[in-house]
Amino acid sequence: MVGAVRFELTTSCTRNKRATRLRYAPYHKGPLELHQTRIECNLNFQKMIGTVINAVAIVGGAALGGSRRGLISASRQQQIKSLLAVLTVGAGFMLIWRGLWGGFGMVLKELGIGLLAMVLGPLIGRWLHLQQLSNRAGEYARQRMAAAKPDAPGAFSDGLVTASLLFCTAPLSLLGALEDGLHGFWMLLVIKAVMDGMAAMTFTRIFGWGVRLSFLPVVAWQGFWTLGGAAIAQAWQAGYPAVLHSIHLAAGFICLSVAIVIFEVRKVELTDYLPSLVVAPLLTWWWL
Fold it and tell me: How far apart are CA 266 and CA 268, in angstroms?
């Protein structure tokens, strides 16, 4: 009787152990699935190349700004500025070309949608007071720079906040990160990286070493939009490619506006144009 009880208990416990092992055994991916995971990780890293370049430029510019060699003459700065403006024009036309597809009639419709988005987008931006918010950030930065002293107790935090605010609120920050995520077009972020690197030199001489850590908010902010753009491209590429093309088209027009500002032809409220990136795909979905 005792033996029978022991046998039943042993069998029951053994079965429970087997069942537990089967139920809670970890899932191991096969070679093909591991290879696919590595490919996805590599693609996500490639989508972040522009932001990584931007972060390296900020750290490098801050390092040069803290040394005696981190001085660029006014004439050299103007030359770099002109080169960046030319590259921005080229990037704008590349995006416009990428946004056009189909026959002649379709191209005319797409151009009409892009131009209409550039009209409606600023209206929405003014209604949302986007440029005013950007101007407030710039005014805050100017006040901090005017009152800054490298050896002051709050210089480190002021430098970090001021540089992060200006680097993240620049229109090319959102625009370049989004395009980098949509199809790996990181040229805009390279242009921004040069601008941020030169600005980091100046900020470091004003605020000190706190500027160097401003790359962290930049990576977080631009990484969010890059990964968001990659998710949008993955979701819409197969079923709604025209919607993605319209985003490229609107981004190209905004790039040309950025070039106008860099060339100092006229003042353009660039931040108010960012809603065009939403208006263009909505018009495309409704019209096409």
Answer: 6
Residue-wise pLDDT for 117-146, tens only, equals 999 999 999 999 999 999 998 898 888 888
What is the token pair recorded at 53?
């370049």
> Could you report the per-residue pLDDT of 1-11, keeping only the tens digit for each?
333 333 233 33
DSSP state of 275: T
Buried b (16+ CB within 10 A) or exposed e, 12-50: eeeeeeeeeeeeeeeeeeeeeeeeeeeeeeeeeeebbeb
Query: 160-174: b or e for each residue (b if 16 or more CB lie within 10 Å)?
Result: bbbbbbbbbbbbbbb
Core vs surface per residue 97-131: b (16+ CB within 10 A) or e: ebbbeeeeeeeebbeebbeebbebbbebbeeeebb
Specify the pLDDT at position 222. Answer: 96
Residues 142 and 197: their CA atoms lie apart, in Å, by 18
Q: How many CA within 13 A on the CB side of residue 217? A: 16
254: Cβ–Cβ under 8 A, 6 or more apart, which residues? 92, 118, 171, 175, 270, 273, 274, 276, 277
Query: For the chain, which ranges sit under pLDDT 50?
Result: 1-29, 31-42
Specify the pTM.
0.81
CA dist 199 and 206 (Å) reads 11
- Give burial (CB, 10 Å; 0-12/13-18/19+) of 151: exposed
